[in-house]
């Protein structure tokens, strides 16, 4: 019998081929879970799955049939579903008035619709089981407005309220629903931005957090594990902030953040 905080439980991780999803899938497996990874990045997703002894299902979370198939595959293979981590997401940085209509729809399709479909199809299974834990990836962007991030913030704000709504609806059958709100984390998406803007972006990104550094995917994964296991058995409808103090208030590096945003605007990001 497996040992760990998720021993013998079945867990789905969307966006599990990289970043926070990959770190979470690895930690879930280490903690005894039977993991199913869903992602559009087939080669990377299969590589992660092979490395940790997980299953991989090619999944576009913006397609309800694909999400339904992901959940159905996990249930057929393992007989149940205990944890659903709706993590897949994309970024978009642009002034609100210059945000393209299709870019907006594509962002919402993944970031918000994908979470909705994950809640819907995993929720159906867990409600029948009368138990389970769902974690959604929101962001500190769900908690405050930011220049250049209107569409992205809207998508993550939607995730936060979907989380609360589902938590209220599912609670009577012992299905817990929470979300995480990470700050700037060292993921592939963040590195693309750093590469485009240059060293100043990384330094500014670190300095805008009172702890003075960028977060690591493994740090977020540990928070996801907490919300997915029995350690958080009386926690539901909660938005867990993992941001190095970014949203706590003003701090010595706050002016650097303004410079950071100005640089992005000047570069047309």
Topology of this protein?
Layout: E1 10-14, H1 19-30, E2 34-39, H2 42-52, E3 55-58, H3 64-78, E4 83-86, H4 101-129, E5 132-137, H5 150-170, E6 175-182, H6 188-197, H7 199-207, H8 217-228, E7 239-242, H9 254-266
Helix pairs in contact: 1-2, 1-8, 3-4, 4-5, 6-7, 7-9
How many strands, which pairing sense, and closed or not: the largest β-sheet? 7 strands, parallel
Shape: globular
Tell me what portion of residues adopts beta-strand conformation: 5-15%
CATH class: Alpha Beta
Sheet/helix structural class: alpha/beta
CATH homologous superfamily grouping: NAD(P)-binding Rossmann-like Domain
Mean residue pLDDT: 92
In total, how many beta strands?
7
Strand order of the largest sheet: 3-2-1-4-5-6-7
The rounded distance between the terminal residues' Cα atoms is 50 Å
Helix content: 40-55%
For the CA atoms, what is the radius of gyration? 18 Å
Can you tell me the CATH architecture? 3-Layer(aba) Sandwich
> Which topology does CATH recognise?
Rossmann fold
Number of helical elements = 9
Query: What's the number of structural domains?
Result: 1
The unreliable regions are none
Description:
The chain has nine helices and seven strands; from the N terminus they run βαβαβαβαβαβαααβα. With 269 residues, the protein is α/β, with parallel strands linked by helices. The chain has a single domain, classed as NAD(P)-binding Rossmann-like Domain (Rossmann fold). The protein has a seven-stranded parallel beta sheet with strand order 3-2-1-4-5-6-7, with helices on both faces. β1, α1 and β2 form a beta-alpha-beta unit. α1 packs across α8, α3 runs parallel beside α4 (101-129) and α7 packs antiparallel against α9 (254-266). It starts with 9 loop residues before the first strand and ends with a helix.
